[in-house]
Write a structure and sequence with these properties.
49% helix, mainly alpha, 5 helices, 434 Repressor (Amino-terminal Domain), two-stranded antiparallel sheet
Length: 77
């Protein structure tokens, strides 16, 4: 993927807030990654592996489609 807007967006920050203001460190521990990884995913600088994405969704008890959204590129006209 080239430069520009990230194609995968997420609602992790909002979900953490609604989960009793869960910290990035607490989520990272639950998922099995570093806090820095959670920070990068939240900010859209890093797209997680499919397994990590499912683990994050599971940590919130949500389907993966409520946590991550694929923003398909616009078709060239």
């Amino acid at each position: 993927m080239g430069k520009g807007q990230p194609r995968i967006s997420n609602t992790i920050r909002t979900l953490r807030f609604h989960a009793g203001e869960m910290t990035q460190a607490a989520l990272a521990e639950k998922v099995g990654v570093t806090r820095q990884t959670i920070v990068a995913i939240e900010q859209g600088r890093y797209s997680p592996s499919l397994e990590v994405a499912f683990r994050i969704a599971d940590a919130f008890g949500r389907p993966i489609t409520e946590v991550f959204t694929w923003n398909a590129p616009a078709a060239d006209a």
